[in-house]
């Protein structure tokens, strides 16, 4: 397991002290995926309703990082209901920005069951253009609407002060190919921009003299920050980037899509394999005193596979609330089936899933 850029241990309440006697404490691992992150919004919305559940730490990348920071801000401002409302307001803002942007869906796209943007003039134009020109040529002034959105929607000073949940945001160092983890007490808008930076659409994001792209390339998300910095053994992962996709892609867009999906899953698969190996050593009695991690999974892979590749840039409110509802339903099903197993055993077979 490549534990690089290890952050200092993050301050915060121990889960045993922070939780009531009937609460279970878990960590969250949230993947990126553009506007598909609205599925994760739905998952979080349902989990926040569950009073028997409490979060200790969240490791997250890209859209997952955005959800994590908004959740932390909302928790600090108004508890669980404050977090639910903050998430809804944020995604409403995403939709409002998208409705004024170049990737606005056409009338034909709005009735497409795959929610793609294949008939959006702006999307078609920009998709073709990115093959020939970089964002430095297309956007020399480096205008990024997400910077304004993040600064308007999130109180970063409050996020840095809050102790409700430990945050770990993942980004990719462009020059070293290493994962960089930004801990919650240092998080500013540029850290969130770094975690969400799409190389073909945005300038690299500079943070303290280093340059970053989307964290999904090297940690989608990285799990090790939870191992280093949290006491809770249960890690619940929200997986939205398909690792499996039957068939062989044969068109250029399909090939590029699959290349990115594979890239976005590789580091996570390697970490899960390492965790599975260490778990076996513990079960075999070869690592005395070590604590067994308990891994859980809420998946959207089957749902995302049915969507168009371009749908991850679709910010239409109908689409976002559709994903939100699916996320709520999956979280509700997971809670009903697995809540009683938290703190006792993993609810995902790591060998079957990642080998």
Structure, explained:
The chain has 355 residues and is an alpha/beta fold. It is built from 14 helices and eight strands. Strands 1, 2, 3, 4, 5, 6, 7 and 8 form an eight-stranded mixed beta sheet that branches. A hairpin with a 2-residue loop joins β5 and β6. It is globular and about 60 Å long. It starts with 14 loop residues before the first helix and ends with a helix.
List the helices and strands and how they pair.
Blueprint (H helix, E strand, L loop, with lengths): L14 H4 L5 E7 L6 H13 L3 E9 L1 H37 L7 H4 L10 H9 L5 H4 L6 H9 L2 H6 L4 E8 L5 E5 L5 H7 L9 E3 L2 E5 L9 H6 L4 E6 L12 H32 L10 E6 L1 H5 L11 H22 L11 H5 L1
Parallel strand pairs: 1-2, 1-7, 2-3, 7-8
Antiparallel strand pairs: 3-4, 3-6, 5-6
Helix pairs in contact: 2-3, 2-13, 7-9
Give a count of the beta strands, DSSP E runs of length 2 or more. Answer: 8
Percentage of helical residues? 40-55%
What is the residue-mean pLDDT, rounded to a whole number? Answer: 92
Percent of residues in beta strands: 5-15%
